[in-house]
């Protein structure tokens, strides 16, 4: 079958990487040509990563050895159920690029548009590479590709405030990358290998556990800054709110997940080798997850800027996922892993819909946007679907993670965290209901808002594809849940639980 | 005996499709009315056509999709579910007629009728839910769909009431979610098709927490004190919404959930052994009395109705908590008895408000001479709440009292007596005011509400009398209530 061709795996990274690099050359200064090329490249990436997902669903995880050099000596790409994140990346990246057709020339100076697509495609390539690599050092390399393009994308509008946000992001991002690099270096020092699977088998034989503990601590710290777990979140709100909306969707939906996918890889190594006991780390992560949920919601309540609200909501959702990691039971981890995918969908729907509203009306504050539900009925409806979904009202996609992590909390005999999660979600509802109230039920401040009309199709179609997926992925929740379950069983298997 | 039958799916699906059509074509008055009335009638016919099967002890099922591994969104029309579905689909039809008349001068009618249909869809979804997760899915969807109806006026007061409503009901939903997760952990299943799924061997403290969580969750919508605060505030909604949602759909979903928890999650046997139901019975008794006392002091007619609802709903909770067959049949039958009587009163209140502009009790002097049919209907409903024989309310009170004696806790029968007196104390003065007081010159010109408001009011009042006189007639609602009870008590 077509999806069995072994070279799809490297192509999933090489297509967007190569396509991104040549974008300015292909575009020759035309924003329209740049868009066409980028859309084509991203569509190809979606097709390639779809092949990989089909293959892993049919036959389980598989690897690719570059140049025929077998791991652990050669470079390995390894595709398992968690790597299916690559497909979500390709898919959402493609939608963000489609959305940018009219948005990018509007938000950026025309000559910058081709470079904008280059950066987006490189970002996608980095994310895909990060989720499929089987090598610790390559993980760092791809992480840096993602981070560097991320800084540039935040700053790309060239406004002063954007540059400041990007700088803040850069400083914290660089520190976290260095921490992760130190951690990887120490793991290399202890095990003498950079291959993830190989490291997992050798770590158990480490002479002393202290370096391993330090290495794990450094990696976790690095990853949690990338994931913006409270209190390491300070860089996130400005960067995500100020970036152009398609970029916000990619940053909030995908880039923060880098730290979480990284955590799953790290768990894979440490749990399999049983080199160190992670229960105190997990205890800490569960607590920080709970605090993150509440604090993210708390800060969001005081925001008037709609993108700022969405940015803080990401911090809460990262809290869900990290809490699921910390509970370390089958249900909780499945819920957390699925929420990595689902949150990407939901948050992209929200950011793109918000972007469309800002594009059409020119306002971004809730107080200015009153009555926009009448002016842009389809867009506001999509945003409302996203809001209901992210709060976790069944049967939408956001509900699955709440249900599974609640089950997982009881499974792990830590019912209090199920309680914290479910009631934390109510807190999140407070500001989303403010948004819905402003859109539909409050007297408009600006009369023009009520008759601006829905945005062009290049924006409306991606927004509604995502909004529909918020519903479909909830109703068909069985599909992602059964898909990631084997990966979680494999992860927890060595713990005997 | 179970049979796969698509009608179980159609019942919620019809009103779901109706809401879609209203949103799409509702700007046109004709299509809006056509789809609303057409779907309401069709749905009523579909649910009614399932009645013979339910009475014959046949249960119709339909598995829609597997939602999460092992737990599906599945529908199952057992006798209890059928009873609730029949009540809500019958009242949807009547209320739609009323709402078309009542909402004529209002704004945003597309939104109103669209969400109205969605609410009924979810209510029937709750009635037919095969497992606790399906029930929860519809329970939460109902919360969301009622929000635009509650704040229909879009005034700051309405928005405030809406916030309060969401805060209460979503917290309740959160409790149910946790309870469902814990049930799954304890029992390994969530099905509602058995008389009890929780294993008796489980840890008693865990079971206590489980019972408290689930009852607290459903108790919010059932307005069991002290979780009732949202209900009086939510009376800012237009009258048809208050009528259907806050006397029938939303609050009954809560009461129905309590019945499911008691009968299908825990089971009568286990609860008798554990003794958890007794505190619930005391709480319900307290609510019955306290709700009535609060109603005494309300001058706004709709607020008086709201507190009366708080009190009446706890009859259902009390009936469930007494754990005897007689009290159980009272609890089930009261779903219909209270619904028809209360909706009559709401319709009357709305008709008075639309025709004369009066909303306060003290303004109602002589209104009976002006609107004799409306007030006659109101009087029938009042007598039902007082518990006069030949009305639906009497059936409830009779069987609840019998149940109280059966359970050996005769003092709960005294609660019934006290409640009757209190109901008389706050309803009969209105009847007295309406017919025997007030300016004489107004009496000269009877001016009833328009037919679309009057006919539903009178129809519901007539049905209250039917409910009160047909408790021994086979095929009538009480027979269905008995069938539900027989299953629960394995008789």
Brief descriptors of the model:
heterodimer; A: 20 helices; 2 strands; B: 491 residues; 3-stranded mixed beta sheet; globular
Structural account:
The complex is a heterodimer of chains A (497) and B (491). With 497 residues, chain A is an all-alpha fold. Chain A is 76% helix and 2% strand. Chain A has a two-stranded antiparallel ribbon with strand order 1-2. In chain A, helix 9 packs antiparallel against helix 10 and helix 14 (330-361) crosses helix 20. The longest helix of chain A has 32 residues, at 160-191. Chain A is globular. In chain B, a hairpin with a 2-residue loop joins strand 2 (59-68) and strand 3 (71-77). In chain B, 73% of the residues lie in helices and 4% in strands. Chain B has 491 residues and is mostly helical. Chain B has a 3-stranded mixed sheet. Chain B has helices at 7-25, 29-49, 51-55, 79-102, 109-127, 132-150, 156-187, 204-221, 230-233, 239-266, 268-274, 277-296, 301-321, 325-356, 367-370, 372-386, 392-406, 411-436, 451-469, 477-488; strands spanning 2-4, 59-68, 71-77. In chain B, helix 17 packs parallel to helix 19 (451-469). Chain B starts with a strand and ends with a helix. The interface between A and B is medium-sized, with 35 and 31 residues.
């Amino acid at each position: 079958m077509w999806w069995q061709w072994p070279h799809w795996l490297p192509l999933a990274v090489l297509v967007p990487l190569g396509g991104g690099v040549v974008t300015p050359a292909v575009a020759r200064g035309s924003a329209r040509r740049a868009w066409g090329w980028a859309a084509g490249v991203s569509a190809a990436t979606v097709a390639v990563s779809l092949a990989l997902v089909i293959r892993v669903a049919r036959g389980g995880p598989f690897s690719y050895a570059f140049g025929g050099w077998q791991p652990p000596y050669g470079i390995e790409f390894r595709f398992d159920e968690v790597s299916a994140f690559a497909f979500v990346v390709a898919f959402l990246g493609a939608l963000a690029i489609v959305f940018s057709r009219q948005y990018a020339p509007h938000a950026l100076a025309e000559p910058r548009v081709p470079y904008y697509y280059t950066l987006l495609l490189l970002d996608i390539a980095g994310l895909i590479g990060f989720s499929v690599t089987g090598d610790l050092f390559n993980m760092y390399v791809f992480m840096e590709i993602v981070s560097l393009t991320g800084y540039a994308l935040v700053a790309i509008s060239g406004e002063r405030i954007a540059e400041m946000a990007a700088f803040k992001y850069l400083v914290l991002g660089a520190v976290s990358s260095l921490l992760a690099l130190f951690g990887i270096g120490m793991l290399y020092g202890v095990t003498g290998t950079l291959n993830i699977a190989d490291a997992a088998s050798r770590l158990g034989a480490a002479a002393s556990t202290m370096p391993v503990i330090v290495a794990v601590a450094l990696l976790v710290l690095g990853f949690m800054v990338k994931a913006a777990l409270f209190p390491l979140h300070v860089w996130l709100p400005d960067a995500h709110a100020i970036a152009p909306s398609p970029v916000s969707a990619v940053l909030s939906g995908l880039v923060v997940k880098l730290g979480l996918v990284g955590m799953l890889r790290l768990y894979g190594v440490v749990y399999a080798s049983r080199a160190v006991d992670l229960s105190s780390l997990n205890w800490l992560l569960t607590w920080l997850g709970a605090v993150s949920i509440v604090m993210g919601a708390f800060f969001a309540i005081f925001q008037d800027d709609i993108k700022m609200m969405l940015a803080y909501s990401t911090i809460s959702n990262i809290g869900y996922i990290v809490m699921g990691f910390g509970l370390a039971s089958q249900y909780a981890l499945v819920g957390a892993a699925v929420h990595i995918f689902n949150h990407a969908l939901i948050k992209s729907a929200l950011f793109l819909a918000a972007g469309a509203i800002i594009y059409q009306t020119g306002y971004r504050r809730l107080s200015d946007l009153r009555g926009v539900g009448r002016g842009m009925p389809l867009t506001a409806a999509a945003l409302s679907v996203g809001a209901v979904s992210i709060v976790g009202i069944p049967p939408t996609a956001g509900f699955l993670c709440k249900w599974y992590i609640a089950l997982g909390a009881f499974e792990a005999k830590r019912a209090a965290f199920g309680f914290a999660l479910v009631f934390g979600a109510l807190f999140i509802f407070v500001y989303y209901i403010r948004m819905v109230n402003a859109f539909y039920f409050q007297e408009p401040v600006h009369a023009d808002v009520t008759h601006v009309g829905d945005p062009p199709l290049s924006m409306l179609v991606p927004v509604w594809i995502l909004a529909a997926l918020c519903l479909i992925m909830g109703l068909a929740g069985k599909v992602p849940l059964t898909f990631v379950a084997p990966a979680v069983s494999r992860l927890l298997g060595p713990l005997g639980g | 005996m179970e049979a796969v039958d698509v009608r179980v799916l159609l019942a919620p699906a019809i009103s779901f499709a109706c809401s879609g059509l209203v949103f799409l074509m509702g700007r046109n008055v004709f299509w809006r009315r056509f789809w609303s009335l057409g779907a309401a009638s069709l749905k009523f016919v579909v649910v009614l056509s399932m009645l013979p099967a339910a009475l014959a002890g046949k249960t119709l099922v339909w598995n829609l999709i597997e939602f999460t591994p092992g737990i599906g969104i599945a529908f199952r029309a057992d006798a209890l579910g059928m009873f609730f579905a029949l009540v809500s689909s019958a009242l949807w039809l009547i209320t739609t007629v009323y709402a078309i008349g009542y909402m004529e001068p209002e704004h945003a009618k597309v939104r109103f009728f669209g969400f109205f249909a969605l609410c009924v869809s979810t209510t029937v979804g709750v009635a037919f839910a095969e497992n606790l997760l399906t029930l929860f899915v519809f329970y939460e969807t109902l919360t969301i769909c009622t929000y635009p109806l509650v704040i229909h006026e879009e005034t700051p007061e309405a928005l405030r009431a809406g916030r309060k409503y969401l805060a209460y009901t979503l917290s309740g939903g959160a409790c149910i979610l946790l309870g469902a997760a814990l049930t799954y952990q304890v029992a390994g299943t969530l099905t509602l098709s058995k008389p009890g799924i929780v294993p008796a061997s489980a840890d008693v403290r865990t079971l206590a927490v489980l019972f408290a969580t689930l009852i607290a969750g459903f108790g919010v919508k059932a307005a069991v004190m002290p979780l009732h605060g949202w209900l009086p505030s939510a009376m800012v909604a237009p009258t048809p919404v208050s009528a259907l949602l806050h006397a029938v759909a939303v609050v009954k979903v809560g009461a129905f959930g309590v019945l499911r928890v008691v009968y299908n999650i825990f089971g009568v046997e286990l609860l008798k052994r554990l003794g958890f139901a007794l505190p619930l019975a005391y709480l319900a008794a307290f609510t019955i009395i306290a709700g009535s006392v609060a109603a005494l002091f309300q001058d706004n007619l709709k607020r008086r109705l709201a507190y009366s609802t708080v009190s009446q709903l706890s009859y259902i909770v009390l009936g469930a908590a007494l754990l005897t067959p007689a009290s159980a049949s009272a609890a089930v039958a009261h779903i219909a008895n209270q619904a028809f009587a209360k909706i009559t009163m709401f319709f009357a209140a709305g008709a008075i408000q639309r025709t004369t502009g009066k909303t306060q009790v003290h303004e109602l002097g002589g209104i009976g001479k002006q609107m004799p049919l409306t007030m006659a209907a109101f009087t029938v409903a009042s007598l039902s709440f007082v518990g006069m024989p030949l009305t639906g309310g009497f059936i409830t009170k009779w069987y609840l009292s019998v149940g109280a004696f059966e359970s050996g806790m005769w003092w709960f029968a005294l609660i019934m007596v006290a409640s009757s007196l209190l109901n008389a104390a706050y309803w009969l003065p209105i009847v007295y005011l309406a017919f025997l007081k007030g300016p004489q010159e107004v009496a000269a010109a009877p001016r009833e509400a328009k037919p679309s408001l009057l006919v539903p009011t009178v129809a519901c009042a007539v049905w209250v009398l039917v409910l009160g006189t047909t408790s021994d007639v086979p095929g009538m609602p009480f027979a269905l209530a008995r069938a539900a009870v027989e299953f629960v008590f394995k008789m």
